[in-house]
Amino acid sequence: METIIVEIVKGIGSILLQPALYVSILITILAGFSRTKWERKSFRVRIHSPWQELKGFFGLGIIFGLAISIVMGFVGFSLTIGWIAIFNVVLIVLLLIGLFRMASTAYTIGITSLVFYAVYYFDWSLAPFENRMLPIRDLYIDNFMIALVFVLALLLAVEAFLIQFSGASKASPMLRKSGRGKLIGAFRLRRLWLLPLLCFVPGHGFAALFDWWPIFQIGNQTFSVMILPIVIGFQQQIQSQLPAEATHKIAVRVTSLSILIALLGIVSIVIPVVSLLAFVVAIGGRLWVSYHHRNEEQSAAFKFTPQKDGIMVLGAREDTPASRMEILAGEVIMEVNGKVVLNREDLYEALNENRAYCKLKVRDNQGEPRIVQTALYEEDSFELGLFMVE
Questions:
Q1: How many helices (H) and strands (E) does the chain have?
Q2: Disulfide-capable partner of 257 in 29, 32, 285, 383 (CB 3.0 to 4.6 Å)?
């Protein structure tokens, strides 16, 4: 038992040998600095740290990765080196082509599994990524594919959870022009989460390539241990609804897709070929979810537009008077210190009436008026820290 634990600890370092991890980190960092660039372009100020995306990358997903690793270990699920090698290539290609948008597990796991089945069916060589103790021709391919379907269903459920509870977190506003040249507000949501999965690989695995690779024996079977960097991506532009509303709708659809894939997995136990259909449905279903959202956004009326009776708010910077008053995106400021405001100039004039105190009348996202107020301090922003659409 002690030997197994030592080898598992050594196997954790295997994640550093997979290029998909480095590509994911690089794209995440570039996305953060790209975001700050268009934040400054829209509002002349940085809204969130350029490292925000990287912090999210190493965030909540790691907990889910640990939980799923325990489940996979408990049921005795293992991956082959060939599948892992194909996965790295597929993930890198999808990240380079579609960035965060194409990093859904429906695409990465689905495409990888279909390609792997084609390798098995046509007996293509994957040298040097071949198992020495378990050649691909000796693999129980039907059982392997069925197990992958259930893993995909589980990962899609996790993806839905992350989209629901983290997809709209610290959403960054932006200003853009509509097709008619009208200035409107929008939100671009981009997230990438890392789920490191502890995998058992039958055979000598990478030990055939690297002498130092950790291996151990369970019964008559030899296993290698490695960490697989599952990466889940999410990217959408929101302009007709609040970010939290949009992510909720998308999460519900992804959850429905995960349930459908799980049902197809159950059917595939009786009819193994259905496992292939499950991967196709996962890919097509996730494409439909993205297309359906995009179509809804394009056909719906813009939400964040200039208002006739006030100033539309896109958000507030942290640690500012606006954030203390909890002014939210989509709300409309109608009065400042008792004076009606219709634009930025009106806001400045009203604030000058009393530089020690601010009282606002706001119309919230339910269309109801409310009063918010706060004291003003010398270090506070003159604009209250608001991001506005005028």
A1: 11, 10
A2: 285
Q: Can you list the domains of the chain with their CATH numbers?
A: 2-299 (no CATH), 311-389 (2.30.42.10)
Name the nearest CA neighbour of 320 among 369, 374, 371. Answer: 374
Neighbouring-strand partners of residue 193: 232
Amino acid of residue 117: Y
Decide: residue 225, CB within 10 A, 0-12 exposed, 13-18 middle, 19+ buried: buried
Residue located via tokens 């909890």: 326
* Residue ranges in 300-320 assigned as alpha helix (H): none
pLDDT tens sequence across 252-265: 999 999 999 999 99
Give the sign of the dihedral formed by CA 354, CA 356, CA 359, CA 365. positive
- DSSP-derived letter for residue 378 is T
Buried b (16+ CB within 10 A) or exposed e, 376-390: beeebeebbbbbbbe
Are the CB atoms for 337 and 356 separated by under 8 Å? no
d(CA 238, CA 240): 6
Largest CA distance in the chain: 83
The reported pTM is: 0.86
Let me know: does 310 contact 332? Beta carbons within 8 Å.
Answer: yes
CA neighbor of 104 nearest in space, from 116, 94, 89, 92: 94
Q: Give the other-Cβ count within 10 Å of 90's Cβ.
A: 22
Query: Under 8 Å CB-to-CB from 15, ≥6 apart: which residues?
Result: 21, 196, 226, 227, 228, 229
Q: State yes or no: pLDDT of 216 exceeds 90.
A: no
What integer best gives the mean pLDDT of the chain?
Answer: 83
Cα–Cα distances in angstroms (integers) from residue 386 to residues 186, 231, 263, in the given order: 15, 34, 48
Contact (CB, 8 A) for 206 and 14:
yes
Query: Tokens in use for 297?
Result: 């956004």
> What are the pLDDT digits (tens) for 322-345?
888 888 899 999 988 889 988 888
Indicate the angle between helix axes 243-270 and 141-166, nearest 10 degrees: 170
Q: In what order do the strands lie in the sheet with 183-202?
A: 172-177, 183-202, 221-238, 215-218
Identify the CA nearest to 355 among candidates 371, 372, 334, 379. 379
Tally of CB atoms within 10 A around 139: 18
Read off the tokens for 282.
Answer: 């996962």
